[in-house]
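Predicting holo structure, 6-O-phosphono-beta-D-fructofuranose bound.
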Amino acid sequence: MLTGGGDCPALNAVIRAVVRTIHNHGGESYGFLEGWRGAIEGNAIPLKALETDEIIAKGGTILGSSRTNPYKKQESIEKLRQSFARLGFDALVAIGGDDTLGVAKKLYEDFKFPVVGVPKTIDNDLECTDFTFGFDTSINIVMEAVDRLRTTAESHRRVIVVETMGRHAGWIACFAGIATAADYVLIPEEEVNVDEMCNVLKKRREAGKKYGLVIASEGAKLPQEGLVTEDAEVDDFGHVRLGGLGKTVADLIERRTGIETRHVILGHLQRGGPPSAYDRVLGTRLGIHAARLVLNREFGMMVALRGLKIAHDTLANAVGKSRFLDLEFMREAEEFYKNV
Ligand code: F6P
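Done. Tokens:
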């Protein structure tokens, strides 16, 4: 197996579940290091069932990850296929987001490569699955941070803008906003209503509320402005590095309302540390079902959460469809923005 793309809590729960399930059926498991880079180089380590129990509580991925795209260079694909054959592996479980699973889909389409996918991302922006593991831990991290920021904001009668991850989807920001009673939430799916945001903050201050909390998803856009990025670089899959919207919004709020405002960019804190129980259970279940697809030699498939069940679908069907925030959640959250 391999873990590709942005890491997230509970990746190791998936790894453990695949190793244990394959072991229970007399098989052996190996892990490619650093995502597709390890698969290209044939850089694999053995994974023993009895050594994996403690990793369920460990954040990140014991295999390492990367944003390597083997389809960037034709020779990488050939090297990957040769490495796989030389190592004598029967199947590959690819654990990742749209980029990693997109490579798995192409390998199956191009070569009937024996691959099974497991969807992963803190962004929760994959159409194929109701929730992705990593998301629950991430919103709990944001919630704990915002609960802390509330006390210092109140002590100094300030507004604090908290910038969250999520790339081009507002799932993290919206769910964390509801969980922390934030005064306003900015998401990529809807243009920011600056007047409404400043009005809510001002009216609440005038009504006696001593602080304000705004959660801004990194991919949200202010009117007439584009994405706020850290630099112009893009990764192997063409993604820009988002970051900096929080400061832009904080400066704007202070200018428009006169309320002293600060900002915090939570960044990779949202991806770190031990997984929540929900994510450990979801990751474990996905790993068991992915291993079962391997044992049944059902390739070109990926597992997914559908309601309370773990289902599976073809990679062709499931990959490449981003799932933006269901705005029903924002309409519910707005019960807390529209009135002072
Ligand atoms: O896709 C997960 C994610 O954390 C996004 O929310 C974020 O924009 C991006 O990865 C950060 O990527 P990197 O870890 O490569 O900086």
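Residues 177 and 185 are 6 Å apart (CA to CA).
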